[in-house]
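Record 1 of the preview.
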Amino acid sequence: MKKKYGIIGNPIRHSLSPVLHNYWFKKYGLDAEYSILETSDKEIGNVVQKIKNKDLNGINVTLPYKQKIIPYLDILINEAETTGSVNTIYPDEHNNIIGENTDVFGLQAAYLKEVDNISNKKTLVIGAGGVSPSIIFALQKSGIGNISIVNRTIEKCFFLKKKFKSLNIIEWNNFHHELKNFDIIINATSLGLKNGQDFNFNFETKNENLIYIDTIYNPLETKSLKYLKEKNVKVFNGLDMFIYQGQKSFYLWNKINPEIDQKLIELLHSKLK
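->
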């Protein structure tokens, strides 16, 4: 019987997860398919029940459901338990519905392992939504001790500080003046998504060695990323993080560690033009 997987989130039509996973299913000769599952807040429980009923074999979760889905799960393990953020779900051998987090691995594998003297880097995370706990934990695992966060709604920052005690909080109205003090800036918001709003920041007084990471991959180059690249900032879009988190999800579902080959990269880029 064909196995069925999918992704829930909102907005979700921009997702390339079906392209990624269906490529690997075909490459490894697996009788499986992956699709976009357009889901409202009220339908989250129904999707999890489909896994329980074996109508689905697993799902990925993206914004804004990474925390909202947790009450419907039986067990959180590893980074999902630590961060309180879930992006990969599957049933175990006892049909318990497991929540896992592969975003932490995705960020580390894609970007952080490439940064020299990373423990000395002052880092700012913009946004306190679903992926932010994973980013903060990945930064901590990589040895970064000086981490700040800013969000329009400061209450969300205080909530994260309960989990990550050493987190510094910056007020939204002031953080433009603080940008020059950071070595790494990570956009963990949905600002910049295709056909959506984007940042309009003043990076004129940037740190000359600044690294800017955008978790968005569609478009490959957001307006803010393009602006910074023109100012000779070292920039990364979210595509590599997306691929690596997907690679680990695929392994959790199929016990196969899929290859990230050039054909796959070219396929994904062709979908983003």
